[in-house]
Amino acid sequence: MDLHGNLEGLIDIGSIDKVVQVGQVPSISSLAQRLGRSGRKTQKSILTIYNLDQWQLLHNIACYELLQEGFLEPNQETKRYDILVQQILSILKQTSGIRRQELILKISKNWAFNQIKQTEIKTIIDHLIQLELVEDLQKELILGIASQYIVTSKDFYAVFEAKKGFQVVNKGKTIGELDPPAFGQSSDYIGENIFLSAKVWKIVDVDDKKGKFFVEKARDGKPPMFLDNGRGEIHPRIREKMLEIVLNNYEYKYLDEKSQIELQDLRNQFKQFQDLHIEEQRPVITKQQKTEIFLFTGSKIQKTAQKVIETTDKYLLSNLDSPVSLTLKTDSKSSFNFWQKLQNTKIDFDEISRAQLDPEPTKNTLTKYTKYLPIELQIEFYKKLAFDVTGYEVFVFQTKLRI
Hints:
alpha+beta, Arc Repressor Mutant, subunit A, 5-stranded mixed β-sheet, 36% helix, 18% strand
């Protein structure tokens, strides 16, 4: 799969004729960046992508087509309570003391925190006082005793924390080290293959506390992955574009012969849905008493849907590996009843998020400074990072299934 464009380079790393990508591009923005890294002298950017399966091929075509249309993922607005903690301590260090209301106004005027209410800022300040990271002298706030080590550390101004790598262990012998998994559960990677020490290994168990992956030699031919490969958030428009591509007959000239064959194979699987209304319908295929609902929506919305189903009936889901669908242990007729039930099911995502966190706030290390937040704000922060509740509710309510 060869993509040619004329995008201006985004990072100055010298003269490169061609960039090679193995697997799925994380986003449209990253695709634009990769294209821009080549062809400085020739003014012709060339990116060759080796797709590891059909869904990656479809994903990469969708990203490139959307890039050609001028679409880029919008910035995600998240209340970064954790960074606010760092900024409070930073301001107190800079000023050697500041009046409470002046501090609150200073933070409120910062565009990075314009989504955070003043009441939430006050709550965080009060919690930092309880932790003795901030001291209240009535007239002004100053750094507390417990914050002295934090603010004098060479890593204080770094927002991201360098995490210790996971040891990779086979039969009691350490064969190497890998970066810890990005946001998510380490257990999600059990069953995945990795490449290390010139061999392919399968992750069979994880010890989070000791930071270890336990592996055995892989024999299933499954391609190895990087721990964050394809695990990032995929925008709903990308998945919707994938469905458009599957349902049309357009020939993409930049695909090689094998990619053309694989794309046609995917299209053959969805031939009966060519008149489907993408704006409001999603295809359903039933095989051997299992029904696959092809959501073709954002990864965060799909993850939210999976969590709702797991909470209501954990035995209903059959396969969680598909990037675009949910597989249910039911027939097609029952899937319609299931979808109606899903539309009327309300789940307390605050409680789901609370269950993922330690009740002791200082033990939670979701990001570098989250452990200094009160538990209720940690729950809110986790929920926004892990799920898209509003997007899920809109999608499920507006979407009809089509057999």
